[in-house]
Every structure is written in C-alpha cells, then in structure tokens.
Amino acid sequence: MKKNIFKLIFMVLFLGIAEKNHAQIITRNLDLDLSSSGFDITAYPDSDAYPGHYEVNMRVTASVNTHEYGRFYLYPRRRKKKADGSWGSWGSFVPNVTGFPNTGYSGTPSSVYSGTAKVLQYQGTEYQYKVKIVFKPVDGGSKTVYTPTRTAKVIGVPKPCFTMYNIKDTHNENSKYGSKEVKTICKNAVAINGSCSQFEKGYHIRIAEFDLSSWTIGTNYYNDWVGSGTAPSYISLNALINENGYSFQIGKLYMVSLSIGPVWKTAPLQFFRVQECFPGSPNGIIENIGQEIVPKELEESVNFGADNDSDVLDGLKLYPNPVGNQFTVSNEKSNTTIPTSIRIVDSKGNEVLNKTYSQTEFKVATSSWKSGVYFCEIKVGEKLIKKKILKK
Known about the structure:
By secondary structure, the protein is mainly beta.
C-alpha cells in the first residue's frame, strides 16, 4: 500500500515538473516588411516627420502551449553594418513608437503575443534586428528565446542628375516662364553624363523638340527607359535618336530630361541647339563629319588612346580601328600564362563584350554591332589600357 502511495506521489511530482518544462515557446517571429510575404526590408526613406529616415515597423509574434499562461517580456536588439562589410556589436534600444517597450509586456496573462513597434533608421544604413523574448508562466519559472534575425536596409534618397558634353557656348533665351539657359552643342557629339545621379535602379531619357514661348513639347525623338542599374558617365543622345530614325537639325531647339527609378524622379530639363563643329578645329566648323564625336572631356578623363595608336602595353595591338566585321588583339610580348581580359561597352554604357582569352592573339567578331563609338578596356596582368574604337 505504501509503495503505491509513493509511486502516486512520484508520478504527480514528475508530471508537474514535466508540465512546467513543457511551457516552451513553440513559435516566435519578427517581421520588418509588413506589406509583403518577406520578413526583411529594403526601402527608401519615407518619414514625413523625420526626413531622411525610414520608419521600420517591427512585428513580434510568439505563442506557448495553450494550457500555459503567463507574461511576455520583449527586449529589442540591433546591430549596424560597418563600412568594411562586417557587423558591429548587438545593442539594445527602445522603439520610438512603443508597442512593446524593453521593460516588457505586463498585460493580462496570455499564451499568445502579437505586438508592433517602430524604430527610425537613417538613409544609407543597414541594420540587423532581433528581439529577446522572455516568457514567465503564472506559476513561476521562465523561458528565454530570440526571434530570427531580420535585416533592414534603407537606401539613400534617389537623385537624378546629369551634365552635357561638348558645350560650345551657353546663352539665355526668352520663354513663357522667363529667361532660360540654352546650350549650343556639337551636332555629332550630343551626349550627357548621368554619373552624378544617385541610388537609381534604372534611367529614362526623353529627347524632344521644344517651344520655349508656349512651353510645349514637340516631336519626341526618344522617350523610353535606356537601361537598368545606374546611369553611366557617357550616354550618346545621337545614338538614342538614331534608333528611332531621327537626327538633330540645326536651327531647332531641343530639350533633354533624365529620370530615374524605381522611385520616379526627374532632373531639371536642359535645353540645347546644335551646330556643325569638331573640337579642336581652327574655326570650330566642319562639314559632313559622317561619324559621332566622343566628347574630349570623356576621352581625357579615362585616358583613351588615339584611334590609330596600335602599340600599347609594350607589344599589345588592336587593329584595324575603325573596325569592320571583326578586329584582332595581339600581344607579341605576352607570357602565354597571363590571360588577356577585354571588356567593351557601347556609347549608352551597355556592355557588349566581357571575356578573358588565354591566347596571345584572338579575334573579336563585331558584325552584329551597330555603327558608332565603343569603349574598350584591355587588361593583361596588372596592366590596363582604355581605348576608343569606332565600328563602321
């Protein structure tokens, strides 16, 4: 009889301990992107109250076995990504909008928790977030877990910006809205530099005739997205409008605009007229050039070799130039164990070739390329040459 009583007492105590240990947090989650099925977020600053900041919404959910009741205490943690790509140390913080303060949640005992809080994060920063959850059952004891780690990256505010190449002069002309600056550009060298734009994921260009007196847009020569990614340092407007069968005409006034996405923003319009000219000619005027001119500023900034300069990198040659359906690259003095890498982009900044060759001489087919100017980077070992080539 006594044996049975001891067994019964032991079973009660064992079940009680097991029941208490059974109070485990079985689910817990941290969601930063409340508008999608994802948990991480990449966003642009959108706080009206705090310009340049993004209001990161943190939603924490947790639940224990339904027969366990107690209180949830939440302690937010975060760490910042450093310039070298590594993460800093975890630190605690109090949310700006207190849905769950770091002193914990002390409401009516419950088995399920769901709460949202906000924290401000500055543009151009990247943080990782997690929340320490402590569950204290009403009958004593506690269980501590962490939510999964989530990442919030706040991209800087997109900024459209561009300048124009080959400006011969700048003057003011009257318009419906007062005096406006108008540039005179070489007809065969109308190009813009969009590299001053920031945080864009694509760029759109509009080129059209324009009437300043009525402030109206005439014929659109080009009005479309040009490429994804960032706007490059050289975008040929001649090449863009030629795609649609247009060419710039002397005497007409034109406008050009650069817009970026995915958050649509447009840089101020720039106005220009064209004239026949060639940089460096005695009088600045030349007839029937017949090919696009690369702005002198760009050529000098990247140190491109002259068109007929075939002897580069002590034995490296690229010929012929201008090219027809193919060109040859040879390196007479190269060690065959050193590969030659070649990368070529067109006048819009689109990559047309990026390849590494192990031969000391190889040919590059160009029959599918459009006529125009291309920019070539050839690298042999640690040596690099940047060269302009013309496709006939």
